[in-house]
Every structure is written in structure tokens, then in C-alpha cells.
Amino acid sequence: MHSGLKNYLLVTLAYWSFTITDGAIRMLVVLYFHLLGYSPFEVAMLFLFYEFFGVVTNLVGGWLGSRIGLNLTMNIGMGMQVVALAMLMVPDDWLSVAYVMFAQALSGIAKDLNKMSAKASVKTLLPNEDNSNARLFKWIAVLTGSKNALKGAGFFIGAVLLQWLEFRGALAVLSSGLFIVLVAVMLLLPRGLGKSKSRAKFSQIFSRTPAINWLSAARFFLFGSRDIWFVVALPVYLYAEFKWSFMQVGGFLALWVIGYGFVQALAPRLIRHSHHDHGPDGRTVTFSAFILAMLPAAMAMGLNTSWSAQWILIGGLVIFAVVFAINSAVHSYLIVAYSGKDRVSMNVGFYYMSNAAGRLAGTVLSGWIYQTQGLSGCLWWSAAFVLMAGLLSLKLPVGNPVKAIE
Predict the structure, then answer these.
(1) Whole-model pTM above 0.85?
(2) In the chain, what are the domain boundaries?
(3) CATH T-level topology, domain 3-194+203-405
(4) Mean pLDDT, contiguous 10-residue spans, the chain (406 residues)
(5) In this structure, how many other beta carbons lie within 10 angstroms of the beta carbon of residue 268?
(6) Are 145 and 262 in contact (CB under 8 A)?
């Protein structure tokens, strides 16, 4: 096996393992603290530092990865996640809002160090002959899609562990499993992965490539549009309004994200007619964003009719998952395609800073809008965010993405 491919598989294994714990801890926190009597807005606030420090981590993490190596930033991320999981195993009396927010801050830093490291590694690990645009799109789509499928599995695992082992038992299983993976990756992955040959300056963390800046701005609104209804509003709505059990809520969200992940992985095949060897371009994300904007608006209108709310949500979210997955997969490919090998970690870090900022905005709005305007309000805001992402995508270059950095 080619050494680059072997290392890519090791990075993917670490990314997968981390992702399961990331999905599980989110479901554990949302459901457990709702059960303790926290309001939707208070539950959203528990994730405030998680998302905020994700913004900071992505901004600094790409620069850090280029200086110390992507494998080291990934290992630091996994170690911090183990600590964050262990911190929540204290008695209920210790679980104040401030304490949980601090634990979630560590988890947010860990998540984005891990994600940035894995995504940036793809460009450096694949053999040169495999680095064509079409092949790069395929590998990025597989990594991103499989990650999201496993994050969905993490939602379900978190809900099942909460029901079977309760809150602290679930955390013990997750933290010990991730620690084992961390030790294995530290022993097997070579050092200095993705380390820049030149000493990158901190001032270089901000991209000077217009295409990357426009793509990052669109990413902010794209992921904000999802988290406005996904983070707090939807799980609380399913539990409180439909009277679903923890396992039913976790199972539905898990299936949604797993399906979304599979579509992401299959995106190169699903839209291969829209591009040739140069890969998808700005037109692809612009068109899919405008299509996507119509879906939450349609669901919001449907909830105000006499039709079954369950079928409107389930059917609408299935279609939303397909279109959103294709848009997100092309986004993830374009940021790597727009980046030269020596700056890939910094550009990916800058890009996912916008991703984290969008998630931060979506998380805060999810709790506040649901508490004040209900799920319909969350869906209308989601539609507005996607529309803005589409408008910003109009600025992206058309044709071979490599020309954007030449």
C-alpha cells in the first residue's frame, strides 16, 4: 500500500472515531440538560463557547498546523476531547452553566483542530498522480461524507448510551474508546505531516485569494442555515411536541445525518454531468444554494396548514439533506482545490473559521428563535441564510478551480 494512502486511512480512522464522540456528546448534552429543566435558550448557551472557540481554533489552527505538523494538531484535538468528556462525569451539583460551557469550549477546540487537520491532510497525503481535480473531489467527498455519516451514528449512540448507561456511563465509554484510538494514531502516524517548509507568519492566516474569501463568506451562511433549526429547535421540538423518546429523537437525527453523509460521499457521481475534469465550480454551489433556500420556506408554510407536521418535517428534511449535502461536498472540495499545497492548512483553517462562526450564529439563534418564534420561525431564518449563501456564491469563479490561485 502506498505510504500516503496508508497515512490517509489512519487520519480517516482518527477523524471517524472523534466524530462519533462529537455527535454523541452533542446529543447527550441537549437531551440531558433539557431533562434537567433547562430552557431551549439555556441549552443553546451551553454550546456558545463550543462554537466560539471553534472560530478561534480554525483561525489559529491552520497556522499552527503549518508550523508543528497536522498530525500533532490532530492528536492535541483528540486529547482535549478525552478531557472534555471526562469533565462532564462530575456530580449534577457541579454541572453549572459556566462549568459545562467551559467543558464544551474544550470540545469545540478539539473538534476543529481534528477537522482542520484531517481535511488539510488530504492534499498532502495523496500521491501526485492522484491529485487531479476530479480525483481530489472524490477523496474529499468520501472523507467528508463518511465523517457526517458517523456523526449521525454518534447522535444515535449518544441517545442509546444515555438510555442504557445514563449520562456518566455514556461519557465513560466514549472517553475511553477515543483514548485508545489516540494512542494508536500517535504510534503509527509519521511526524511532521503537513508541516510547511517555510515559517508561516501569523499575519498570513487571513487569505488574500478572493475566491477563498467569497467561499468562506458563503460557508458562514450555509452552515448557519442548518444549525438555526438543527442544534436545539428540532430535537427539543421532537421530544416536547411529538412526545418521542430519547432513542427516537437520536435515531431520527442520526438517520438524517447518516443519509446526508452518504449523499456527500456520492456527490461526485451525482453531479458528474455538471463538470468535466476540472471538477465542480462556483456555478454548482450557487445553483444548489438557491434550490436549497426554497425547502425550509416550504416546510415553514406547511407547518401552518392542516397537514401532518410529522410528515412535513420528515419529508422536507430528507430533501433538504440531499441538496445540502451536495452543496457542502462541493464547498469542501473547492477550498482544497483553491489552495496550494504549502498553504492548504492555513486556507482550510481560515475557511472553517467561517464555518464555525456560522455554526455559532446558528446555535445561538436556534435557542432564541425557537423560544420566541417556534420551529416555523427557525425555518424562515434558515431560508434567509441559505439565500444569502447563494448570493455570495455568485462571486465564485467559473471553470477550473486551480485558476483561482494562479
Answers:
(1) no
(2) 3-194+203-405
(3) Growth Hormone; Chain: A; (1.20.1250)
(4) 66 85 89 84 84 80 70 88 94 87 91 77 58 69 78 87 90 94 84 56 62 90 92 87 85 86 85 65 89 95 88 92 91 80 67 85 90 94 96 86 52
(5) 24
(6) yes
